[in-house]
Amino acid sequence: TRVLLTGGSGFIAAHVLEILLQHGHSVVTTVRTEEKGNKILSAHSSYGKDQLDFVIVEDIAQEGAFDKAVVSDPPFEAVIHTASPFHFNVTDVQKQLLDPAIIGTTGVLRSIKKSAPSVKRVVITSSFASIIDAFKGNWPEHTYDESDWNPITKEQATDNPANGYRASKTFAERAAWDFIEQEKPNFSLATMCPPLVLGPIVHYLNSLEGLNTSNQRVRDIVQGKAKTEIPPTGTYIWVDVRDLALCHVLAMEKDQAANKRFFITAGYFSNKEIAEIVGKHYPQYKEGLPTSSTPGGDYPEGGLYKYNNERVRKVLGIEFRSLEESIVDTVKSLQAVGA
Ligand code: NDP
Fold first, then answer.
1. Cβ neighbours of residue 133 closer than 8 Å, sequence gap 6 or more
2. Taking every annotated instance into account, which residue ranges of this chain make up the domain NAD-dependent epimerase/dehydratase (predicted)?
3. Is residue 37 lining ligand 1, measured as CB closer than 6 Å?
4. What are the domain boundaries of the chain?
5. What is the pLDDT of residue 42?
6. Average pLDDT, the chain
7. Rounded to an integer, what distance in angstroms lies between the CA atom of residue 77 and that of residue 221?
8. What are the Cα distances from residue 233, in Å, to 31, 68, 195, 242, 296?
9. Of the four, 184, 198, 248, 295, which is 20 to 30 A from 17 by CA?
10. Which atom of ligand 1 is nearest to the CA of 197?
11. Which atom of ligand 1 is nearest to the CA of 8?
């Protein structure tokens, strides 16, 4: 299959790219700069331009940003849209989070409908952020599944960056499903809703300082920042980036994934468990790690929401990696960039 992958320089997209190539697909990925595109190509120098190439899309929030990128020869049959801001370092929620997420999503769908009629499947990286009702807290009596939608409002979205990020994912995914319903395009949609994503970074695009948001807690633990107090875990469910990347590719390949939303989690984790795994496998960091009596980082005492990940296991046939394997490999990849 010939695939357009947006945001190929991202943490998750780098793994999606790897699996697409392994599965024999031909990939064009969008990046924001020539430099990032060239780094991706040189890390995959055994593939020809017909198997892997890039195009520049500088800012997905611009109207028509994808108009040129969706056109290719041979034409695309699938699009995987991962590009969207995931960080909390913003002063203007509307411009820096909501616009790129929402306009980026509706923009790519519009461009496909207009200029890429051969596309049959679109896969979008949404998030558990579009499922969770954060105002309910740990909500022990509730089981989250694909029928849940984050009820966040436009007004709440601009209250703070955390709300802004969750709203950006919620509104973008809703806009995608609305597009399918209203525009009845030639393609079907599948959305991926992972909670916290952990796992190895690809060394050729990364640095410890510029690390993607979801892995920063692992870096911080390794760097001794949880020694006297372990920070709160926040979201208590997770998935390994390689398992999530495989879900993206399977959701593109499998007919049965058409027009389905997938809640993709391997299960519970806590920051305390991450620190324990680091200590067990990397004794060189022991000095900076918390001990069994260090406060913080544990599960909430009153209990926690449950999760139902049956759909992704049944429809995509996924088996999830363990937290231990994921953390061991994450730390190994951080060492490759200087941890
Ligand atoms: P990264 O920050 O590594 O990747 C984000 C990607 O989006 C980068 O390629 C980035 O480009 C691109 N991007 C962001 N804003 C723009 C813009 N305005 N114009 C063009 N490109 C842009 O994060 P992840 O890989 O973690 O995130 C990928 C997707 O997964 C996002 O949609 C995120 O919401 C979702 N997700 C992530 C989770 C996680 O825990 N990691 C959990 C749930 C969902 P550049 O590198 O050039 O800045």
1. 139, 148, 150, 151
2. 3-258
3. no
4. 2-273+283-335
5. 96
6. 97
7. 42
8. 31, 42, 12, 22, 9
9. 184
10. 40
11. 9
Q: Does domain 2-273+283-335 have CATH number 3.40.50.720?
A: yes
54 lines ligand 1 (CB under 6 A): no
State ipTM. 0.99
Share of the chain above pLDDT 70, in %: 100
Rounded Cα gap, residues 262 and 313, in angstroms: 10
Strand partners, 256: none
CA-nearest of 79, 75, 77 to 66 is 79
User: For residues 293 and 316, what is the distance between their CA atoms, to the nearest angstrom?
Assistant: 41
Give dist(CA 263, CA 203) in Å, integer.
28
Largest separation between any pair of C-alpha atoms in the chain: 60
User: Which amino acid residue places its CA nearest to atom 47 of ligand 1?
Assistant: 32
Peptide bond just before 74 cis, omega within 30 deg? yes
Q: Which residues are bridge partners to 27 per DSSP? A: 3, 52
